[in-house]
Amino acid sequence: MSIVREKVGIRGGVQSQVQHDSAVKHVTGEAIFIDDIPPLPDTLEAVFLTSQHAHAKILDVDTEAALKIEGVAGVLLAEDIPGKNDIAPVFENEPVLADGVVEYVGQPIAIILAETYDIALNAIKKIIVKYKVLKPVLTIKDALKRESYTFPPQTIERGNPLQGISGAKHKLKGKVSCGGQDHFYLEGQIALVQPGEDKDMLVYSSTQHPTEAQHGVANILGVPVNDIT
After folding, report:
1. How confident is the model at residue 157, as a pLDDT?
2. Which of 5-19, 60-74, 82-96, 203-217 has the highest mean pLDDT?
3. Percentage of the chain surpassing pLDDT 70?
4. What is the CATH number of domain 188-229?
5. Residue 9 above 70 pLDDT?
6. How far apart are CA 48 and CA 128, in angstroms?
7. Contact predicate 179/143, CB 8 Å
8. If you average pLDDT over every residue of the chain, what do you get?
9. CATH of 37-137 among 3.40.250.10, 3.90.1170.50, 3.40.1280.10, 3.40.50.300
10. What is the pLDDT of residue 214?
11. Which DSSP string corresponds to the chain?
């Protein structure tokens, strides 16, 4: 069967239909997803164990029962990361795995490596984490009061606003609150990593920013960026 494609523009204004740039490959089955790539022999599945608390100190992570499950190859904690435990794309202090403290619900604490995905999911349930629950910071007002900043404060200043306001003919007084946040993920997250020669790694990732993923993996492994493809 031959597929005839017509060139269709993907640009358009308001109220015009805009075609996704990969639409044809999606509907014809030609698009290749990571799940379509045959894994190499002895490939392991990885699953995250995540925090159940918004803010807590990690007292102990007991992996003994999980490691006894047949098919489990290992458990990785922050201390096992060979490079830098940081995947922040712009600033710093965004750990891959929590090290001593968790700061949000769902923060990764450990990674289970197993022969199958189902074995890894079952093993996650066997890991026991002991916490000392701490009071979370839930509002911007509380964060400012406690000087609990996500990143070091960044200040952009142009002109002298206070001087301009003091000399203004008319003044308005009030408060503005903006609950801005980072966008959520665009699709289900998945990655496939194939080791190459020496410390080379070939990474397939469902990401909109391949270069950021490349730098993150290199940072974690403690290798030059050009070792990661």
Report:
1. 84
2. 60-74
3. 90
4. 3.30.365.10
5. no
6. 14
7. no
8. 87
9. 3.90.1170.50
10. 93
11. -------------TTS----TTHHHHHHT-PPPGGGSPPPTT--EEEEEE-SSSSEEEEEEE-HHHHTSTTEEEEE-GGG-SS-S---SSSS---SS--SEE-STT-EEEEEEESSHHHHHHHHTT-EEEEEE-----SHHHHHHHT--SS-------S-HHHHHHT-SS---------------SS---EEEEE-STT-EEEEE--S-HHHHHHHHHHHHT--GGGB-
Cα 144 from Cα 147, distance rounded (Å): 5
In angstroms, rounded to a whole number, what is the distance separating the alpha carbons of residues 217 and 229?
10
Written as six digits, the tokens of 94 are 């965004």
Give the pairing of strands 191-195 and 201-205.
antiparallel
Contact 88, 150 (CB under 8 A): no
Confidence of residue 93 (pLDDT cuts 50, 70, 90): confident
Per-residue model confidence (pLDDT) at position 18: 75
CB 190 within 8 A of CB 206: yes
The pTM assigned to this predicted structure is: 0.77
Q: Is the pLDDT reported for residue 1 higher than 70?
A: no
State mean pLDDT over 62-83. Answer: 95
Q: Parse the chain into domains and list their residue ranges.
A: 37-137, 188-229
Q: How far is CA 49 from CA 77, 133, 161, 184, 214, in A?
A: 10, 17, 48, 20, 23
